[in-house]
Amino acid sequence: MGFEIGLDTASVSVTKRVPDLGVRPRELCWIAAAALVCLTPWHSVAAPAVESARSHWALQPLRSVVIPETRPRRLAGNEVDAFVLQQLKRKDLSPSPAVERRQLIRRASFDLLGLPPTPEEVEQFVADPDPKAYPRLLDRLLRSPHYGERWGRHWLDVARYADNKGYVFFEEKTYPWAYAYRDYVVRAFNEDLPIDRFIVEQLAADQLDLGADRRPLAAMGFLTVGDHLVNNTHDIVDDRIDVLSRGILGMTVACARCHDHKFDPILQTDYYALYGVLRSSYEPMVPPLFSTPRLAESYEEFELGLVAREEKLKVFIVEKHGEIVRGGRRRIAEYLMAAYAARNQPPTENFMVLADKEDINPTVLLRWRLALERAREQGGGMWAPWHAYAALSETNFAQEAAAPPSKPAGSNSVPSLVAKLFQGQPPKSMQEVADRYQTLLRGIGEQWELGVEDARKRGLPAPQALPDAEREALRAVLYGPDAPPDVPATMDWGFLSLLPDRASQGVYQQLVTDLEQWLMRSDDAPPRAMVLQDSPVAFTARVFQRGNPNRPGAEVPRRLPLMLDPTGTPFKQGSGRLELARALTSRRTPVTARVFVNRVWMHHFGAGLVTTPGDFGMRSEPPSHPDLLEYLTWEFVQHGWSLKWLHRLMMESATYQQSSLDREEGVRVDPENRLLWKMPRRRHDFETLRDSVLAASGQLDATLGGRPVGLTAPRRSLYLFVDRMDLPSLYTTFDFPSPSSSCSQRSATTVSPQSLYLMNNEFVAQTARSVLKRPDVASLSDGQRLGR
Predict the structure, then answer these.
(1) What pLDDT sits at residue 44?
(2) 10 Å Cβ neighbour count for 668?
(3) Model-level pTM?
(4) Are 217 and 531 contacting, i.e. CB atoms less than 8 angstroms apart?
(5) Contact by Cβ (8 Å): 707, 698
(6) DSSP single-letter state for residue 215
(7) Which candidate among 296, 302, 490, 726 keeps its CA 20 to 30 Å from the CA of 370?
(8) Residue 327 near residue 360 (C-beta atoms within 8 A)
(9) Roughly what angle, to the nearest 10 degrees, separates helices 643-651 and 591-605?
(10) pLDDT value at position 579?
């Protein structure tokens, strides 16, 4: 026997028998209870969650921690070991003995450089009895230019780095200057740029006083090297919110795009506060230079050609934008009738639409529909008659319009000029209603335009408004800041969505391609910085109801998420990017430093003190050593956010220098080694495996930086072309992360294709043969070769 479930917002009840569905009544009640949870408005519990978040460990202010008195006596170490040993003693465990020096130098070299030490370096270190030999080794490794390559790759995982845009239309699919961001990251780590400055430059280098050194402009690739997602503005901004929040804050803010976060104290308004910041910026058509080009006659010719092509594109955009705006102000009745015809359909943005040149513009139509919808929800106003007539039956319109049932709600607020439109002879169709609105609005608009033109001829300032308040309100329908015809036109690659006709798209595509190819392919074209620039007018975000951009709700100021700043103080400087960047690296946002320190620990010890490095939210695992994480973070900030200082502190610890061999008591008490009774064994990743093979064969080209190369080139793996659309299977075989989203921690798998590659691939076979040809190997006997 089956049952029908009766649901309301307060109870679950079995109300009526229905045909057997094969589900027991008890199970059905559980299903109903789950459905009730899904139907409960999350915002009803989200606000208290934000308040309670102040007690969450990750959001607490940084504090100085007292170092435990217990120290490992038989191992050379530092303060890190005091915290680790304290936890071990609570479980009656002891640390493992020190690793052999031959293994220690390999461990340190792979950790800091991603390359094996040479045999000579190993023998020299093993034979050096000086207690300071290991600190000297760390200093040498940290001074190596290859250090920035290794640790830069870790950050590029977070930044979802790739050398192309993904799936896009009518434009170059490759990022011609993504490598400039990659090289910036390498240089920043090599120079030990303070990490707080590193973060600020990646979010707002364009707003910093850089002086003569413009190289930090390339840092903004952090935001701009992501997927272009068919040029859908909302998805691009969402991707940037995700990389910013997960990469820097360790919080999944992007989960609040459609509703308040289900688990963390992140409101939907917090998402759109950041949306407003990033939507207030755009990618310029011609990115700025960050280095001084060599002055030559050929470069001057390149600049002249660039200016000419950029001007052609600008003129085209201005001309087409003017046509769209003028058409929207002149063809009012057509847009109103199109909105009326689509009134029962959900408004959507169609990026694939094609139309004839004479058709009304789909983007303008969408804006008309949204404006009318907002007016209907607010009630009254100039559009009250429109909505009253739109509610009448189409088949009996004339009869119903001739005898309206009653005075429509809000009719007292209808402007007198609009009310006069419908006094006397009633309209016989909605087309006539639309025509009457068009006559009024076009008349007022033309009157104002005549005033502007007259003022221009007289050399006077153009009037900003009509003197009559009611006429000014009606003028704003076509000329105000939110006027449907006045679509925004930014000078970037997103203008295509305003051009639905093939002819215009063809011209636009040709102009864009001409400019892009000139920028990319010319012999004298210097590299450029993939920056964002603030729009002339900052974007005021509205909450998208259920994530639908065509159902805008309440306005949200540009600000920090409330969990970080309960005051909700709005940003005031342009887009707010610089204020955001400085807030994220200030003491009032301690989670930023905690997230970074935890990631560094993860790369040295195989797992973070917090095992979810990209999620420090309410459902994350608490730190295995909370006081140690606090101590490291506090000292990291006190030492100027120096990453190299942090490496030394972690790697000089006895904990790092432990053996990685299993011990029976450790496996029994702590099988996951969360207490660090030994040094975890770690797998080679794709880069260290490939680079080690090349280094051992003597083929590795150690050149730093430059344009990306193909998979067969003997460069370090950092410089291989990363194809977002078609990542080679070799990468995924060895757990290289997808560049489509930010990756805080790579997965580690053991699968047969890994062994098969090392056994059968020609690249591996060729490098193995090259080992035998090395000068220091070729003349040796077989036994000596094995030893070597």
Answers:
(1) 42
(2) 9
(3) 0.85
(4) yes
(5) no
(6) G
(7) 490
(8) yes
(9) 50
(10) 97
Degrees, nearest 5: CA angle 405-408-409: 140
Place of tokens 């450089």: 113
Among candidate residues 363, 366, 364, 387, the one with its CA nearest the CA of residue 375: 387
Residue 7, H or E segment: strand 2-7
| Alpha-carbon gap, residue 424 to 429, rounded angstroms | 15
3-state secondary structure of 604: helix
- Lowest-pLDDT range, 363-367, 448-452, 482-486? 448-452
* Listed range (88-97, 452-461, 569-578, 753-762) with the worst mean pLDDT: 452-461
In DSSP terms, 629 is beta-bridged to none
359 or 369, which is more confident: 369
The position carrying tokens 């058709």 is: 359
Tell how strand 533-534 and strand 541-544 pair up.
Answer: unpaired
CA-based Rg of the chain, rounded to a whole angstrom?
Answer: 32
Query: What pLDDT, on a 0 to 100 scale, did the predictor assign at position 40?
Result: 41
Per DSSP (E only), the strands in 173-319 are 281-282
C-alpha torsion 149→657→690→141, nearest 10 = 30
Which of these, 785, 767, 772, lies nearest to 693 by C-alpha position? 767
Other beta carbons within 10 angstroms of residue 63's beta carbon come to: 11
Burial, 400: exposed, middle or buried (Cβ in 10 Å; 0-12, 13-18, 19+)? middle
- Residues whose CB is less than 8 angstroms from the CB of residue 679 and which lie 6 or more positions away in sequence, other chains included: 96, 99, 107, 605, 655, 656, 657, 658, 659, 660
pLDDT of residue 333: 93
Per-residue pLDDT reduced to its tens digit, 558-586: 999 999 999 999 999 999 999 999 999 99
